[in-house]
Design brief:
heterodimer, A: mainly alpha, two-stranded antiparallel sheet, about 40% helix, flat, B: alpha/beta, 11-stranded mixed sheet, 11 strands, globular
Amino acid sequence: MSTISRDEVARVAALARIDLRSDEVDRLAGELAVIVESIARVSQVATADVPATSHPLPLTNVFRADVPVPALPVADVLAAAPQQEDGRFLVPQILGEE
Amino acid sequence: MSTDITRLSAAELAGALARGDVSSTEVTQAHLDRIAAVDGDLNAFLHVSSQDALATAQDVDARRAAGEELHPLAGVPIAVKDVVVTRGMPTTAGSKILEGWIPPYDATLVERLRAARLPILGKTNMDEFAMGSSTEHSAYGNTCNPWDLGRIPGGSGGGSAAAVAAFEAPLAIGTDTGGSIRQPGAVTGTVGVKPTYGGVSRYGLIAMASSLDQAGPVTRTVLDAALLHELIGGHDPRDSTSIPEPLPALVEAARQGATGDLSGVRVGVVTELSGEGYQEGVSARFAESLEVLRGLGAEIVEVSCPSFTYALDAYYLIMPSEASSNLAKFDGMRFGLRVEPTEGPVTAERVMAATRGAGFGDEVKRRIILGTYALSAGYYDAYYGSAQKVRTLIQRDFAAAFEKADVLVSPTAPTTAFRFGEKLDDPLAMYLNDVATIPANLAGVPGMSVPNGLSDDGLPVGFQILAPAKADDRMYRVGAALEAALEKTWGGSLLAQAPELKTTELTR
């Protein structure tokens, strides 16, 4: 079973939007290799004839009547925001320069 | 007062309140005093909400004095795990990324606690985002086990279990994704129940793995767990996975079990959840408990669940995958921490990465990275998909086993409480704590841990009872029967044998 390389950890960390320090990348590369061996064992029994189960109990779509209900008060929600302005969340620029 | 009211069970407190022997204000104050006296050493609470709790207690006392009809648990205080959102009360999930966050709404189960007027004493410590088996991954320090302050109280819900074990609260709420209610119950000598998936609303739980998470009761007695389970459980239209049916009669089942008759009940011992890796004292107590059940009239049968061998591996693919997706909401934009990068452009994407790098602890990062990897292009089918197939196999094993037995049993955890630091650097050793509890989460069936004695090291051991989905009443019946029989031989509760905690003088 292949292990997860340092480069792979860095690539996945970028996908997950987590800044990792260099020592964290080193440590995770070592630790994740062990955990990924799980897949080797799971593959022994997860054969093509076994259906996947996504959910513990069988479910069908759950619908409710489309009735408007009051939303949370704007002030209560914004009270927890890192920054706010004019009754809205204030966020950094969304797009980079390029 | 001659008797220490913090030692009473929730059912006993409910009786004393109804008779007018004590007021809710006295009961609540006694528990707040106990928290002040012992929590400096334990660190079971991240937040104590004295004013809120006492206001509820006074309200209950006034209503009772006016002759109002109240819920049986009205005025009985409760502690809530910090992964459950509470309006106006800090909620951190044990993470720095949510430090100081005050939710603008209540979880459904908290709404039900408030509607029944249970004073909420505060929020309990836990592994960050419920990721761990020891509370060592909390960003706010370990919780200590009341039986030995140098040892773990289990996790992730170590704070709730320790609070109940140390008589800081008669009741607490926990959440269980792979054993986070049951394993802390086992290692602290308390009762912990993971209801059937969908039995208690997940609305307002800060999600780790949505297909596995379930909230449930943390108590000192089986009857108390049934009382609390009936209060918080039942259908909630705000959780689409909530079961749209009434709960079985849990309190009735617990009372029936306590009479001590288990004739006709088939108890299945799961071959794969014993033997190698289980501490000698844990195995010995388990064998004794089986004899107790046999003595009460139960028929003991052996059942095999061969796919359980793969449960831990499947769990550690499914859980991080779902967690990586659920935790994407911590982006530094709408609530919680925001950290800006120290150099380069300050874009939303870079702020998100800097915030998560600074705000998440090691174990959370580890699981998000693993989950992101497992779900990334080219790996999804081999990783998440294969693990979901194992889930099918485990469900089939349960279905076959429940043909032969009404309940299944095993030790809750392979060992008693270990020392802090012992397993911190070895994720796989830490994960093995959950080997017996994880199958229930993967299949959605209910599970309970009941204290069944002390191991050779003098530390508590737990007995796990599993029932088919939506048949939670069966485990309450068997659990209450075992508890009653064991307490007869002990001459009291197991917790009565716990060492006295050092108390700090109060200057109230």
